[in-house]
Amino acid sequence: MFSEKSSSTVASDTHDNGIDFDVVAANCKVTNERRQALDVENFVQRPSIARANLAVATEKPEGSVDFSGEYGDYTVLQQHCLFWDRNMDGAIYPWDTYIGFRELGFNILFSFLAMLVININFSYPTRLAYSYIPDPWFRVYIGSMHKAKHGSDSGTYDKEGRFLPQMFEDMFSKFDSDQDGRLGTKDLLDMIHGHRLAADPFGWFAAYFEFGATWLLVQKNGKVEKEDLRQIYDGSIFFRIREANLRGKGWDKGFGPWDLVRLLAAKSA
After folding, report:
1. Are residues 21 and 50 in the same domain?
2. pLDDT tens per residue, range 74-116
3. Are residues 99 and 59 in the same domain?
4. Are residues 181 and 66 in the same domain?
5. For the chain, what is the mean pLDDT?
6. Residues 22 and 83 in one domain
7. What sequence ranges are listed for the domain EF-hand (predicted)?
């Protein structure tokens, strides 16, 4: 975690970014430990206003141009899920979830677990936009995906499924311990812990599952790169990974069973 800074240093930081109000409270230590990104506006126009269909960052102020251009009629949260809507009919069936995770390179057991977690827990919330009667097929509906937003998350998606650049940048400002633009395993765990809300066990579990799956999918040398995480949010990276796997060259990031075997073998050597 960040080393503590004196109030004079904090004041200098905020003044340099044109801020004339306090961003740290002396009697709340965590406001100093988890420091906000103060310079986002230098790279992204009006970062506190959510983008309906663009996931942007300081390094990518235009977002995923081609991808978002093709799916611009969908919110960023919907774009995040479109990979699993295999026939683009607006509904994700359990077998769509399973096949999608398999195409990303996850094993049978994890893909089956993901299918259970996602379709059992998120079918009814998204179904409520259309009917109070539960869906017999446990479909997850793209059109009302915002109703599947859970607590204890990063807040990068707003309640309607738009993308908040400031919240995305804050994840790295607050939790990227060595400020290298990547989140290590401990950083991710600290972030999940820092975002936990009281009396929200489902949100806690969902956060661990989602960021755990993200780490397994895109980590390299134990860290998740900022650009990869941005593309996780808009879903564009899922299509890239599937394409790499289908072409036979495979995805060059992530952590699979063979990585675990090699890790255990190295420790026992």
Report:
1. no
2. 999 999 999 999 999 999 999 999 999 999 999 999 999 999 9
3. yes
4. yes
5. 93
6. no
7. 163-198
For the CA atoms of 65, 70, 71, 73, what is the dihedral angle to 10 degrees?
Answer: 100
Domain that holds residue 90: 39-268
Residues 106, 15 share a domain:
no
Q: pLDDT digits over 16-25, tens only?
A: 677 899 999 9
Maximal C-alpha separation, the chain = 60
- DSSP assignment of the chain equals -PPP--HHHHHHHHHHTT--S-S--TT-THHHHS-----GGGTSSSTTSPBSS----SS-TT-SHHHHHHTTTS-HHHHHHHTT-TT-SSEE-HHHHHHHHHHTT--HHHHHHHHHHHHHHHHHHHHTTT-SSPPTT--EEGGGGGGG--SSS-S-B-TTS-B-HHHHHHHHHHH-TT-SSEEEHHHHHHHHHHHPPTT-HHHHHHHHHHHHHHHHHH-BTTEEEHHHHHHHHHSHHHHHHHHHHHTTS--S-S--HHHHHHHHHHHH-
